[in-house]
Amino acid sequence: MIDHTLLKPESTKDQIVKLCEEAKEYKFATVCVNPSWIPTAAAELAGSDVGITTVVGFPLGASTTFSKMTETRDALASGATEIDMVANIGALKSGDYEQVKQDIAGVVHAANGQAPVKVIIETGYLTEEEKKKACMLSKMAGADFVKTSTGFGPGCATPEDIRLMREAVGPDLGVKASACVRDLDTARKMVQAGATRIGASAGIAIVTGGKGEGY
């Protein structure tokens, strides 16, 4: 259930290689890395069951739909197996729901069934109604998951947000809790609230019962 995550801009190749080794050892669902590290991750994970998640329109969500679609196609060609895209938060808060939906639909189209698309709605910026709307638009646009946060915005994933998101999308979509999930107790609370995936840099701490830091 865990996407073992390293998205810091200063991440080095050695750190990405270590991330992949840890993911294989602990049988995480995927590693989550920035697009430039996909080939490195693909080489390290070849022959394993660990997938490669990458981010699109990250971390602001304010790039154009065309650029997000291009990023998606490039990522898949490089070896990514899952796409975490950032929704257009400004358009959502402006009430331009059609733009938000078409932006997500564009990435879903670019993924072309090759990879699940997770939509990061960045809950820390949104009201309760905006969170519900973002989830509904993601579902209407054909996304596979909704996700709480980039980890670069305000706030943390909370069980309350996970419950709200699960209720909004129903049983058919995945819900990913990310940002501040750093120990087993927190991860369990997210799963109990309806999360089906955890995004964390503290994956090892979660599965070994420790306390992690960072994302």
Count of separate DSSP helical elements: 9
Quick one: how many beta strands? Answer: 8
CATH class: Alpha Beta
Helix amount: 40-55%
Architecture per CATH nomenclature, i.e. the level-2 architecture: Alpha-Beta Barrel
Decide which structural class fits the backbone: alpha/beta
Largest sheet: 8 strands, parallel, barrel
CATH superfamily, by name, is Aldolase class I
Major sheet: arrangement of strands: 1-2-3-4-5-6-7-8
Roughly what fraction of the amino acids lie in strands?
Answer: 15-25%
Radius of gyration, in angstroms, nearest whole number: 16 Å
**SSE arrangement, N to C:** EHEHEHEHHEHEHEHEH
Shape designation: globular
Number of domains: 1
Low-confidence regions: none
Our measurement of the CA-to-CA distance between the termini, rounded to an integer number of angstroms, reads 16 Å
| pLDDT averaged residue by residue | 97
From the 3D structure, determine the CATH topology: TIM Barrel
Pfam family, one: DeoC
Main location: cytoplasm
EC number: 4.1.2.4
GO molecular function, one term: deoxyribose-phosphate aldolase activity
Note the main attributes of this structure.
215 residues; alpha/beta; TIM Barrel; 8-stranded parallel barrel; globular
Can you describe this structure?
It catalyses: 2-deoxy-D-ribose 5-phosphate = D-glyceraldehyde 3-phosphate + acetaldehyde. InterPro entries: Aldolase_TIM, DeoC, DeoC/FbaB/LacD_aldolase, DeoC_typeI. Its main location: cytoplasm. This is Deoxyribose-phosphate aldolase. The chain has one domain: TIM Barrel, CATH 3.20.20. Helix content is 45%, strand content 17%. The protein contains 9 helices and 8 strands. The protein has helices at residues 13-26, 38-45, 65-78, 89-93, 97-111, 128-140, 159-169, 184-193, 203-208; strands at residues 2-6, 30-33, 51-56, 82-86, 117-120, 145-147, 174-178, 197-200. Helix 5 (97-111) crosses helix 6 and helix 7 packs parallel to helix 8 (184-193).
